[in-house]
Design a protein that fits this description.
single chain; 191 residues; mainly alpha; 8 helices; 66% helix
Length: 191
């Protein structure tokens, strides 16, 4: 037997998450990027040892994508955009989240909600990275090589596609928030 539950969070509820994100960002202001990535990755390492509902497991896969977005040297995310993603990942590096992870069944619920909010904020970045990874994998298959080898080669076609993906990301961000530079982040700030 399973049970479907729909949760609707209003603006006041979301403000609680925004405030938690800001606290985490404040604590992580001087934390090196590598430490943030390791801490966020540690959350993913915890999950195989704990039973979590599928909807949480699905969102944790999106966290892995955000981590890869920053860590993928072949993609080479520009510094400004890298800071934006790291700002989102700061919450997952904070050991004092809204619901302690060791609470059975719902311990990762706050993480799943925060991941969903981060994915909304980072949609242009995630879509551009997904486009790039797809292109890289297709090109690697066409050439009969491992995509990891292509990252190391940094061939001209890959560099061109990487730059196109970054520009597409910025365009999606501008267009997705009404255009004209009116976009304002709500979950994160860059340091």
């Amino acid at each position: 037997m399973s049970l479907d539950i729909t949760i609707q969070l209003d603006d006041a509820d979301l403000d609680h998450f925004v405030e938690a994100m800001r606290r985490a960002q404040s604590k992580a202001a001087d934390v090196p990027a590598e430490t943030i990535l390791q801490a966020a990755s540690k959350l993913l390492d915890t999950v195989p040892n704990v039973r979590v509902p599928h909807f949480i497991e699905d969102r944790l896969g999106k966290l892995d994508t955000m981590i890869q977005l920053v860590a993928d040297e072949g993609y080479g995310l520009p510094d400004e955009d890298r800071k934006r993603v790291l700002s989102c990942l700061a919450y997952f590096a904070d050991p004092h989240d809204i619901i302690p992870d060791n609470v059975p069944v719902i311990g990762f619920l706050d993480d799943a909600i925060m991941i969903e909010l981060c994915v909304r904020e980072l949609r242009p970045e995630i879509e551009a990275y997904s486009d790039f990874v797809l292109y890289r994998n297709q090109e690697a298959a066409r050439r009969g090589v491992d995509p990891v080898e292509l990252k190391a080669q940094r061939v001209d076609w890959l560099e061109t596609r990487r730059l196109e993906a970054h520009e597409t990301m910025r365009k999606r961000r501008r267009d997705g928030y009404g255009g004209g530079g009116g976009w304002q982040p709500t979950l994160f700030r860059t340091r």
